[in-house]
Amino acid sequence: MKPLMNKEQLAAALGVEVTWVRDAITARTLPITWVGRHARFDEDDIAAWLESKKERPDAAPVLGIFGPKKPSSPPPRPTNPPRAPKPPAGPIKPKPPAGPRRAAAA
Length: 106
Prior knowledge:
Blueprint lengths: L6 H8 L3 H10 L5 E3 L2 E3 L2 H11 L53
Antiparallel strand pairs: 1-2
């Protein structure tokens, strides 16, 4: 049995940052072998995964086989335009002066 790789070893083998491997573990996009709660990676599984991710020129989509693309229609206009905010209800009172009130000197 071959030893399994941890995320640091896999990142070094793929030439990516460890954070990329962590994100791929979270997204479950890599073939993962769980050992307890630790993610480990089999070299053969990773090689097969990489092979499936290759883009092949002979399998590339052919553009324009259904004719020219028709121009899209403009987006529909909103039926109710946004309204301006309402003014506050009632009379606006001035703010009282700050600080304690002093008795008027007689």
